[in-house]
């Protein structure tokens, strides 16, 4: 878990582990809630048991399927250096 909390912008980066459903990979949205309750796959019905997970767009995601997108002000603080080849 990348210290994801309510209000963070996240992107789905992994498929559902039980059946491999991957149609939500790339979805970007804001975390609405963090809850602890029973979780099951809406595609294949696999029961994951009780766990802590996020609610994004009304859908439950385990933390390991999400990547936090840092706020723009944090991105401005990241120093990047790229050497460009000199063409003569």
Brief characterization of the structure:
The chain is mainly beta and 88 residues long.
Describe the model.
The structure is a single chain. By secondary structure, this protein is mainly beta. It has one domain (9-70). 7% of the residues lie in helices and 39% in strands. The chain has a 5-stranded antiparallel beta sheet with strand order 4-3-2-1-5, with no helix packed on it.
Structural class: mainly beta
Q: Strands of the largest sheet, in order across it? A: 4-3-2-1-5
Which value, in Å, is the CA radius of gyration?
17 Å
Total DSSP helices = 1
- Content of β-strand: 35-45%
- How far the N terminus sits from the C terminus, by CA atoms, comes to 47 Å
Characterize the overall form: elongated
Proportion of helical residues: under 10%
Low-confidence stretches: none
Profile the largest sheet. Answer: 5 strands, antiparallel
The figure for the number of domains is 1
Taking all residues together, what is the mean pLDDT?
Answer: 87
The SSE string, one letter per element, is: EEEEEH
Q: Could you tell me the number of beta strands?
A: 5
Brief descriptors of the model:
88 residues; 5 strands; 1 helix; mainly beta; 39% strand; five-stranded antiparallel β-sheet
Topology (elements, then pairings):
Elements: E1 9-12, E2 28-40, E3 47-56, E4 59-61, E5 66-69, H1 72-77
Antiparallel strand pairs: 1-2, 1-5, 2-3, 3-4
């Amino acid at each position: 878990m990348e210290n994801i909390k309510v209000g963070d912008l996240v992107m789905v980066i992994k498929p559902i582990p039980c059946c491999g459903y991957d149609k939500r990979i790339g979805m970007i949205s804001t975390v609405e809630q963090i809850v602890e309750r029973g979780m099951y796959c809406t595609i294949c019905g696999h029961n994951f048991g009780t766990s802590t997970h996020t609610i994004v767009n009304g859908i439950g995601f385990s933390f390991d399927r999400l990547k936090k997108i840092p706020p723009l002000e944090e991105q401005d603080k990241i120093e990047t250096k790229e050497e460009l080849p000199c063409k003569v």
